């Protein structure tokens, strides 16, 4: 593949699996993350890819840091052709226990951060013939999941932001889509799910199992591929073991 892709949250979980998949497809990849220990491990894990991958410590809520990272990527790795907005945090807390401070923090990272990265990336992409932006939403942005007032609202915002940016950026040759994962085995979900909530998820999922980070990558690769998904924009694809399709299932 010609050109470069930025993956936010690329040092862990779904983001890291995406970085590895895209390297395998021939992309040059810049991963932005905050967690120093995850970045160190990811660098070691992907060392064989040499200079085709770079990890940078960038907070996606910092506009000037994001703008600088986009400029460095285009200058060093070739025209920016794709972005995967995977950086995010999750909280599972009843609404009565959710402080305004926490609510704002979740929105700031998951929604505002995704917006900042998409906007800055689109500024670069419009100069070089367009590209594809993939936001990682969540099934909690599609359904009323218990305990997800802040997280679900942020991801519902990501789904709508995806549609709006798809419409605004279409004339620039930039497609914008989202992937909404169900429960995927990553550090985030292991921290989030108690034994009880895990059991409840397994009962509710038609496929009766959680997913792997690699199982989310196919939809993301499809949406980044200019030929395979050339007529797809503003769409959210659920990769969720059937969760968002489901209703009453046999228990
Ligand atoms: P993860 O915790 O393994 O990875 C998220 C990464 O984002 C971490 O490395 C973290 O350091 C980074 N990050 C957080 N805030 C950041 C910031 N301000 N700037 C830069 N990097 C930041 O989590 P994951 O499970 O891989 O989740 C990835 C995305 O997928 C998230 O947006 C999450 O909401 C979404 N998602 C995950 C699941 C799941 O079941 N794992 C389900 C639905 C949606």
TrEMBL record:
Q: What PANTHER family does the database record attribute to this sequence? A: OXIDOREDUCTASE, SHORT-CHAIN DEHYDROGENASES/REDUCTASES FAMILY MEMBER
Q: Name one GO biological process term.
A: fatty acid elongation
User: Where in the numbering of this chain does the Ketoreductase domain appear?
Assistant: 3-187
Q: Which SMART domains does the annotation name?
A: PKS_KR (SM00822)
An example Pfam family from this entry, by short name, is adh_short_C2
Q: What is the name attached to this protein's record?
A: NAD(P)-dependent dehydrogenase (Short-subunit alcohol dehydrogenase family)
In its UniProt entry, the species of origin is given as Xanthobacter flavus
Q: Name one GO molecular function term.
A: oxidoreductase activity, acting on the CH-OH group of donors, NAD or NADP as acceptor
Entry superkingdom: Bacteria
The family assignment reads: Belongs to the short-chain dehydrogenases/reductases (SDR) family.
């Amino acid at each position: 593949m010609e050109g470069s892709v930025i993956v936010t949250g690329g040092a862990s979980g779904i983001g890291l699996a995406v970085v590895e998949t895209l390297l395998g497809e021939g992309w040059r990849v810049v991963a932005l993350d905050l967690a120093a220990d995850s970045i160190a491990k990811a660098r070691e894990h992907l060392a064989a890819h040499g200079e085709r991958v770079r990890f940078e410590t960038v907070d996606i809520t910092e506009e000037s840091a994001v703008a600088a990272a986009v400029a460095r990527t285009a200058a060093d790795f070739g025209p920016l052709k794709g972005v995967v907005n995977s950086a995010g945090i999750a909280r599972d807390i009843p609404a009565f226990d959710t402080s305004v401070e926490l609510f704002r923090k979740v929105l700031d990272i998951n929604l505002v951060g995704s917006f900042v990265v998409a906007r800055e990336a689109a500024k670069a992409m419009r100069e070089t013939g367009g590209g594809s932006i993939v936001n990682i939403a969540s099934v909690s942005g599609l359904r009323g999941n218990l305990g997800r007032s802040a997280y679900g609202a942020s991801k519902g915002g990501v789904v709508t932001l995806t549609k709006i940016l798809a419409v605004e950026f279409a004339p620039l040759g930039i497609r914008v889509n989202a992937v909404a994962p169900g429960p995927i085995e990553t550090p985030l979900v292991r921290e989030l799910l108690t034994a009880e909530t895990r059991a409840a998820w397994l009962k509710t999922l038609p496929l009766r199992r959680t997913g792997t980070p690699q199982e989310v990558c196919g939809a993301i690769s499809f949406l980044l591929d200019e030929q395979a998904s050339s007529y797809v924009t503003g769409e959210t694809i659920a990769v969720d073991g059937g969760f968002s399709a489901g209703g009453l299932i046999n228990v």
